[in-house]
Amino acid sequence: MAEIQNLTPRDAFETLLAGNERFVAGSPEHPNQDAARRAQTAPGQNPFAVMFGCSDSRLAAEIVFDRGLGDLFVVRTAGHVVGAEVLGSIEYAVQVLGSPLVVVLGHDACGAVAATRAAVQDGTTAGGYVRDVIERVTPSVLASHAAGHTEDPDFITEHIKHTVDLLLDRSRLLAEAVESGRVAVVGLSYRLADGTAHVVTVRGVGIPARLF
């Protein structure tokens, strides 16, 4: 495999999947988690993937993908909702740090999606900035309703797809990096019970169909 700091989008994706397979099998290698790696990364970082995921405490990226220090540039918000800070963080990782892969990581039993479904169905609302999270997830829930979906996995899938589309619609820098073939954006859905990460959508070249 290519050196970890010079991975193609495909290499980066395969590395993530391999780590998740080790985690699911109960045989993690815990790479890049020792003192030598700490010293190596102290002068600077060169993460091979951006992980934009939900803030859920059960969704720790370095654990579920069996990676270590300097491997993943992690951005997390409740329900993986997108704001200016998220876009700026992802653009920084892609443009300045050279990350070839951006992952949107959603999961089943997502509280943000459940709260939004309740708000849409019953008209219930939340206080404070939780309301803002619900408002940002609402387009995904409405799209799922319009498609006739009724099951939770379908709503999760729709929200992951919507987030991927939103990133590319709002970030010209990211869209151009994908168009040039330098970066791929992948939407993954994580299953809490068994720890598996499943591909929902892929935008960009270089990732063959056999991988999902």
From TrEMBL:
Coiled coil feature spans: none
Matches recorded under Pfam families: Pro_CA (PF00484)
Keyword line: Lyase, Zinc
Keyword Ubl conjugation listed: no
Catalytic activity annotation: hydrogencarbonate + H(+) = CO2 + H2O
EC code: 4.2.1.1
Protein's job: Reversible hydration of carbon dioxide. Catalyzes the reversible hydration of carbon dioxide to form bicarbonate.
Family statement: Belongs to the beta-class carbonic anhydrase family.
Protein known as: Carbonic anhydrase
Lineage summary: Bacteria, Bacillati, Actinomycetota, Actinomycetes, Kitasatosporales
